[in-house]
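Postdoc handover notes: sequence design on the structure in folder B. Input tokens:
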């Protein structure tokens, strides 16, 4: 089992209707590919985790990274995992609100310096997966 976490930016922002249509299609396709994961959105920034067999995860990531609805697509972690963290979700979704930001930035000193929550997670790869599972618990 393999996981890949990336971040990206949607320069104009993704309206909720656009996010909903991305997710609707993604959930159907991911089920077919045996992919699970989570998509987090906050103020034009995106973070997504894809889990599954290595081949399908990398292939799907290649498709996603070419999608013109976002840019600056950057992998910040990929590697083997023992088991899925999002087994029940073909693609969970979280629009970050103040409460979840407070939870995932707990213990981060940089947040008070005005750093965006997603860049903080990105700059701290070891914390990335943990932040995701924290968000999952608050879904
Ligand atoms: C931020 C973002 C996340 C996406 N996540 C997924 C996903 O998890 N699964 C998926 O199939 N498509 C996802 N897509 C859509 C893909 O980029 C692509 O449009 C879709 O898979 C259809 O590709 P196809 O026409 O080659 O089948 C995402 C797009 C964006 C912008």
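Designed sequence:
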């Amino acid at each position: 089992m393999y996981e890949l976490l990336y971040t990206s930016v949607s320069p104009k922002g993704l309206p909720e209707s656009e996010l909903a249509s991305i997710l609707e299609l993604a959930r159907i396709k991911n089920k077919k590919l045996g992919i699970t994961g989570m998509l987090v959105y906050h103020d034009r920034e995106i973070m997504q985790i894809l889990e599954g067999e290595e081949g399908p995860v990398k292939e799907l990531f290649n498709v996603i990274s070419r999608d013109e609805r976002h840019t600056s697509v950057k992998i910040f972690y990929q590697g083997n995992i023992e088991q899925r963290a999002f087994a029940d979700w073909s693609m969970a979704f979280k629009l970050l609100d103040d409460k979840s930001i407070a939870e995932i930035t707990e213990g981060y000193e940089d947040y008070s310096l005005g750093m965006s929550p997603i860049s903080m997670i990105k700059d701290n790869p070891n914390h990335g997966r943990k932040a995701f599972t924290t968000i999952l618990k608050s879904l």
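Context for whoever picks this up: Helices lie at 16-33, 54-65, 98-104, 117-122, 125-137. Don't rerun without checking with the PI first.
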